[in-house]
């Protein structure tokens, strides 16, 4: 057999890989070990002896994956080229590559292409039987929507609801035997874990390969939606794959891929998608709490550490006006907890806040007071 020692060397203009081949004596081959010259050769010969003695059944380190580019420099074949060794092309990543391809193929069976009015198609996941989820931001129209199935058929779909705050839109379509995705929990995902983004182009699946770059806790979107986990992906997400599936190495769909600020790849976790789907199917929209007041952060007096939220506008038909909140009031508390930022109020006006009674701590005309208010439901615009 052949023991191949792999060394990285740098040429004048680029890095190349040289493979030095050491002939190892094998009884069935009838060859002798090359006589070592110097300490390096002695180490190689010792390793070869261990292989021959049965310490390892196979010791081949070869970096060829598909062709012999890594074994050439300026058109000349380097020593240890696979064609010289008799080993042939052995790809240590071939099994890994085949595994990734199989994951993409399986996940793509539940992913369709969506034609929603944009210049290009986007992707959607068959989340539940007859229910597709896609990126709300990428869906430019609400009627005349079509989807391309994995078998190439193009059929009509209808919008069941959309939620800009979580970037989830739900479509209905006739599945006709199309398998639904298998969602997975994000709890076990850690930075560095391998992930795949699987979408669908009209001509077939489209995939990106990378890692989970950051896995954080719950966060608030710019539209006020609560996303259960912040998932930043270290991969290149094609706009065509937006709305497609984030897949782990077990083939589970961890969420829906979207493009965030600066076109960075993010994912909406499966738990958030599930919650949005439930509400969109029930009501056509996701209910959000509504205060009915325009707010702005403000500093109180000369103390830089004391801040609140200034009321700069009041909806005359909203909960704030009915409760007696006035322009110029400063909100400093919410059910006894300090409030210093507008984003904190937005987070408190989540889905569960609709219909709840809240006691606001205020500063009005320099004097503290409390005001009770019942949170309404944000009207549809």
Name the descriptors.
single chain, 381 residues, alpha+beta, Thrombin, subunit H, Pdz3 Domain, 3 domains, six-stranded antiparallel β-barrel, six-stranded antiparallel beta barrel, 6 helices, elongated, disordered N terminus
Topology diagram in text:
Elements: E1 2-10, E2 15-23, H1 38-53, E3 72-73, E4 76-77, H2 82-85, H3 94-108, E5 111-115, E6 122-128, E7 131-135, E8 145-148, E9 154-163, E10 168-172, E11 194-201, E12 204-215, E13 219-220, E14 226-227, E15 231-234, E16 245-247, E17 253-259, E18 265-269, H4 270-283, E19 289-290, E20 293-299, E21 307-314, H5 319-323, E22 330-334, E23 337-338, H6 342-348, E24 357-364, E25 367-374, E26 376-377
Can you tell me about this structure?
It is built from six helices and 26 strands. The protein starts with a strand and ends with a strand. It folds into three domains: 2-85, no CATH class; 94-286, Thrombin, subunit H (Beta Barrel); 289-377, Roll (Pdz3 Domain). The protein is an alpha+beta fold and 381 residues long.
Number of domains: 3
Estimate the global geometry from the Cα principal axes. Answer: elongated
User: At CATH's second level, what is the architecture of the largest domain?
Assistant: Beta Barrel
| SS field, number of helical segments | 6
Strand elements, count: 26
Instruction: Report helical residue fraction.
Output: 10-25%
The mean pLDDT is: 80
Radius of gyration based on Cα positions: 30 Å
Provide a compact summary of the structure.
By secondary structure, this protein is of the alpha+beta class. The protein has helices at 38-53, 82-85, 94-108, 270-283, 319-323, 342-348, and strands spanning 2-10, 15-23, 72-73, 76-77, 111-115, 122-128, 131-135, 145-148, 154-163, 168-172, 194-201, 204-215, 219-220, 226-227, 231-234, 245-247, 253-259, 265-269, 289-290, 293-299, 307-314, 330-334, 337-338, 357-364, 367-374, 376-377. The longest helix has 16 residues, at 38-53.
């Amino acid at each position: 057999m052949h023991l191949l020692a792999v060394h990285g060397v740098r040429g004048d203009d680029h890095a190349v890989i040289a493979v030095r081949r050491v002939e190892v004596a094998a009884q069935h081959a009838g060859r002798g070990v090359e006589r070592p010259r110097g300490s390096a050769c002695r180490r190689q010969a010792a390793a070869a002896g261990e292989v021959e003695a049965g310490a390892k059944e196979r010791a081949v380190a070869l970096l060829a994956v598909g062709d012999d580019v890594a074994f050439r420099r300026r058109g000349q074949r380097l020593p240890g080229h696979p064609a010289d060794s008799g080993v042939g092309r052995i790809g240590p990543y071939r099994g890994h590559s085949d595994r990734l391809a199989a994951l993409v193929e399986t996940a793509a069976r539940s992913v369709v292409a969506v034609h929603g009015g944009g210049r290009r198609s986007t992707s959607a996941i068959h989340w539940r039987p007859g229910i597709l989820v896609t990126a709300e931001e990428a869906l430019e129209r609400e009627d005349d929507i079509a989807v391309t199935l994995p078998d190439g058929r193009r059929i009509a779909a209808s919008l069941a609801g959309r939620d800009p705050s979580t970037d989830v839109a739900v479509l209905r379509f006739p599945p006709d035997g199309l398998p639904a995705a298998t969602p997975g929990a994000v709890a076990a995902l850690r930075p560095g874990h391998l992930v795949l983004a699987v979408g669908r182009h009209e001509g077939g699946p489209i995939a990106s390969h990378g890692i989970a770059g950051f896995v954080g806790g719950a966060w608030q979107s710019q539209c006020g939606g609560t996303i259960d986990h912040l998932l930043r992906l270290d991969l290149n997400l094609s706009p065509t794959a937006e709305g497609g599936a984030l897949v782990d190495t077990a083939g589970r769909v961890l969420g829906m891929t979207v493009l965030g600020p600066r076109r960075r790849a993010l994912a909406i976790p499966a738990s958030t998608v599930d919650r949005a789907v439930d509400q969109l199917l029930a009501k056509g929209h996701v209910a959000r709490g509504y205060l009915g007041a325009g707010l702005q952060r403000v500093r109180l007096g000369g103390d830089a550490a004391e801040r609140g939220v200034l009321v700069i506008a009041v909806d005359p038909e909203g909960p704030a006006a009915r409760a007696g909140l006035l322009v110029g009031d400063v909100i400093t508390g919410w059910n006894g907890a300090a409030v210093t930022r507008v984003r904190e109020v937005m987070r408190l006006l989540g889905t569960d806040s609709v219909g709840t009674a809240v006691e606001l701590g205020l500063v009005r005309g320099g004097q503290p007071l409390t005001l009770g208010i019942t949170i309404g439901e944000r009207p549809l615009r």
